[in-house]
Design brief:
four-stranded antiparallel β-sheet, alpha/beta, 26% strand, single chain, 9 helices
Length: 270
């Protein structure tokens, strides 16, 4: 039975220039591979060592990229290694099979959201009304499933984020601050549910996961084993659980360490 590896992407396996955290002397910095181009500009990177580790992992396990990105945002990433058969996008709202969204899964998700939480329109209207134009740069809706703001982090009133989280909690939504983005996501929209479905389809008897943010917590808890880097929301809150390993590395070297741990674990049970 295959092992399934469901990993978050941004700030877990791939990193923007601002998130690389290259604290070593320039001459000792790792060689980087660009894995995403947007509007003709390089956007996301991993180390060349991490790229080889991911290639090896794709050969040894069912690797499932698992992201809050929309389908369009995900499909512009060019990961090394075998093309994944499955990918999870929009925080579990879409399961892609060979790059195409599974309509039955998406229908199940949208029905669950309609039953269990406040509608997207209500949350979107609140964000438009309550967010301060001084620090908001963009309002976005992702795949008609959730909303997020792009903000100037240095101007952001973080107490406002806490107040938003309380407001959202009462309506069945959760809030996550990741870099320059504030996400408002329905609680029933989870990466873990999508991971369980892919595990069922593939017959995986071991599930491994990695992630850095609050939106990854359910994924990590649902897996048999999980890893988080030394940066991000989970690290900032010192979040952990019995089957979760908190790694000390930060930035792009954390991505390399996570892949090394995942590959070691897969090979250890093969």
């Amino acid at each position: 039975m295959p092992a399934l590896v469901a990993s978050d992407l941004d700030r877990t396996l791939i990193y923007s220039a601002a998130a690389l955290a290259l604290t070593m002397p320039d001459a000792r910095a790792p060689r980087l591979l660009c894995v995403e181009v947007h509007e003709s500009r390089p956007l996301s990177y991993m180390t060349e060592t991490a790229a080889q580790l991911l290639t090896d992992l794709g050969d040894a396990a069912v690797f499932v990229p698992t992201t809050t990105r929309t389908r369009k945002q995900f499909l512009r990433i060019n990961l090394p290694g075998p093309a994944p058969t499955y990918a999870i996008c929009a925080n579990g709202g879409h399961i892609l099979v060979d790059g195409v969204s599974d309509p039955d899964w998406h229908a199940q998700v949208t029905a669950r959201l309609a039953e269990q939480c406040a509608p997207l329109a209500e949350v979107q209207e609140h964000l438009l009304r309550a967010a301060d134009p001084v620090w908001v740069r963009k309002h976005r809706v992702a795949d008609d499933l959730f909303a997020y703001l792009v903000v100037e982090r240095e101007l952001l009133d973080e107490d406002w984020v806490k107040e938003l989280a309380v407001w959202a909690e009462n309506r069945g939504w959760t809030v996550s601050l990741q870099g320059r983005k504030i996400y408002a996501v329905p609680k029933p929209l989870t990466k873990s549910a999508a991971m369980r479905e892919v595990a069922r389809r593939t017959g995986a008897d071991l599930t491994l996961a990695a992630g850095d943010s609050l939106l990854d917590a359910d994924l990590l808890l649902a897996a048999d084993q999980g890893w988080r880097p030394g940066h991000g929301e989970l690290a900032d809150s010192d979040w952990t659980a019995p089957a979760i390993r908190a790694l000390p590395e930060r930035g792009v070297l954390a991505g390399e360490r996570i892949l090394r741990e995942l590959l070691r674990t897969v090979r250890g049970v093969a």
